[in-house]
């Protein structure tokens, strides 16, 4: 086994057995922006063996204060392509597939059984509820994060426990939703949420994650942090 993994293998919660689980794992990350890009790099570095990333968007200069993975020279380029290349540069043992399009129901059904866990890192409530419904029906762990202004919310779905839509019922329309690019966002908020998502994903894949669904909320302006289990 590659010596690069020794520091995390030394963790009793991971060990050699957990590292083998990571190498065999298959994860879908939806969104390659402020949340998805650091999640993907963390998972690639940890040795998650098969990672599919999906995003139809290109880099814009206005993204860079929170999407610090990208550079000024990346403006106009597909985030998915840029991220996939960097993941392979970080860890050539990881298999990375780039889907440069919006994830829809057909894709999920066609790939049924291909993912051990899905991460929702998109700035789109329709995608969140699509993934929530799919993972609930298929009993697949799901990590969801949302960020706006100074606030972050990270939800981890454990199959058989409470789903995201059980706590936050889907709205009739997306008309009241304001993406963080319009509402405003402090860059460190996204970094915090992405780190928590990556940590939850790794713990779930190695089998030491929570046995019940959980919700973490943070307000970095006020310095408030709360965790709820269901």
Please describe what this structure looks like:
This protein has 230 residues and is an alpha/beta fold. The chain has 9 helices and 8 strands. It has helices at residues 6-9, 15-24, 36-46, 79-90, 105-110, 125-138, 164-167, 180-183, 187-206, and strands at residues 26-30, 50-54, 95-99, 117-120, 142-148, 151-157, 214-219, 224-229. The protein has an 8-stranded mixed sheet, with helices on both faces. The mean pLDDT is 94.
Notable traits:
globular; 8-stranded mixed sheet; 8 strands; alpha/beta; about 230 residues; 9 helices
Strand content: 15-25%
Low-confidence stretches: none
**Rg, Cα atoms, Å:** 17 Å
Helix content: 25-40%
Q: State the shape.
A: globular
How far apart lie the N and C ends? Answer: 37 Å
Helical segment count: 9
Structure summary, number of beta strands? 8
Which structural class matches the secondary elements?
A: alpha/beta
What's the pLDDT, averaged over the residues? Answer: 94
Helix and strand element order: HHEHEHEHEHEEHHHEE
Lateral arrangement of strands in the main beta sheet: 3-2-1-4-5-6-7-8
Q: How would you sum up the major sheet? A: 8 strands, mixed
* Multimeric state: single chain
Characterize this entry briefly.
The chain is an alpha/beta fold and 230 residues long. It has helices spanning 6-9, 15-24, 36-46, 79-90, 105-110, 125-138, 164-167, 180-183, 187-206, and strands spanning 26-30, 50-54, 95-99, 117-120, 142-148, 151-157, 214-219, 224-229.
Write the layout of secondary structure elements.
Blueprint: H1 6-9, H2 15-24, E1 26-30, H3 36-46, E2 50-54, H4 79-90, E3 95-99, H5 105-110, E4 117-120, H6 125-138, E5 142-148, E6 151-157, H7 164-167, H8 180-183, H9 187-206, E7 214-219, E8 224-229
Parallel strand pairs: 1-2, 1-4, 2-3, 4-5
Antiparallel strand pairs: 5-6, 6-7, 7-8
Helix pairs in contact: 3-4, 3-9
